[in-house]
Amino acid sequence: MLRIAVPNKGSLSGPAMAMLHEAGYQQRKESKELVLVDPTNEVEFFYLRPRDIAIYVSSGRLDIGITGRDLLQDSGAEAEEILQLGFARSTFRYATKPGTATGPKDFDGMTIATSYEGIVAAHLADAGVEASVVHLDGAVETAIELGVAQVIADVVETGTSLRNAGLEVIGEPIMKSEAVVIRRKGADTEDPKVQQFLRRLQGVLVARSYVMMDYDCRVEHLERAVALTPGLESPTISPLHHEGWVAVRSMVAAKEAQRIMDDLYELGARAILTTAIHACRL
């Protein structure tokens, strides 16, 4: 069986299990379940702390894992990402009190507090900065107020909590993170079971990003309509009972669907419909 690590809690857990369910895999019904066997798909799922997943995968005990890019890089584990999943996106940045520093070039001799010691230490080393890094588990913004550090490095979304603590974001982002599928470095990524798993997840990603659009169009307007809805290879065109009309079916990006429907209507297309795509293989 393919052995896969899944986050057991936090912002990664729910979306990861939802994606796996959409991909046709069984998922646990209770949080206390640590292992679930899906015999139909020949997969065994292990529900682990997100921070530990890269370590287990790099050891070779598990074949694949779903975790965050930030947690993978922070672990220093011999594992690599093989598919981006598009959820749990975040930006990792430095912050400090106004006037303290403008970026890493000013950090020499300072202490930086973070929950991601591995990422920060590597970033400072790449920048040639000699600074101390202190590890804290959460609520790192209080480290400056309590005198533990002069700078913090943390996940930043809106920056509201930092501003409320009297801090400002400085410098360029250290990294951008999201949920990823990881595999041990050097492992056989052409393994048929791994490839099938990746195809299923890729199918979910495409299904979430596209809709199927159907509409009726006059033949003389067809080329302009097809330019609006080219599809992945090309649209399906079928003649209608009324002469001079055709039915068109094509996949379009979900975020563009409303605009495309407006443009088709202005072109003279009618009976314009969109339907969700639940699964696909490209």
TrEMBL record:
Reaction equations catalysed: 1-(5-phospho-beta-D-ribosyl)-ATP + diphosphate = 5-phospho-alpha-D-ribose 1-diphosphate + ATP
A Pfam family the protein falls into: HisG
Domain of life of the native organism: Bacteria
Histidine biosynthesis HisG C-terminal domain location: 207-278
UniProt key word Nucleotide-binding: yes
Keyword line: Amino-acid biosynthesis, ATP-binding, Cytoplasm, Glycosyltransferase, Histidine biosynthesis, Magnesium, Metal-binding, Nucleotide-binding, Transferase
Pathway recorded for this protein: Amino-acid biosynthesis; L-histidine biosynthesis; L-histidine from 5-phospho-alpha-D-ribose 1-diphosphate: step 1/9
ATP phosphoribosyltransferase catalytic domain mapped to chain residues: 49-203
Gene3D superfamilies, A to Z: 3.30.70.120, Periplasmic binding protein-like II
Main location: cytoplasm
Mechanisms controlling activity: Feedback inhibited by histidine.
Known cofactor(s): Mg(2+)
Gene Ontology molecular function: ATP phosphoribosyltransferase activity
Family per similarity comment: Belongs to the ATP phosphoribosyltransferase family. Long subfamily.
Protein role: Catalyzes the condensation of ATP and 5-phosphoribose 1-diphosphate to form N'-(5'-phosphoribosyl)-ATP (PR-ATP). Has a crucial role in the pathway because the rate of histidine biosynthesis seems to be controlled primarily by regulation of HisG enzymatic activity.
Protein name per Swiss-Prot or TrEMBL: ATP phosphoribosyltransferase
Primary gene name: hisG
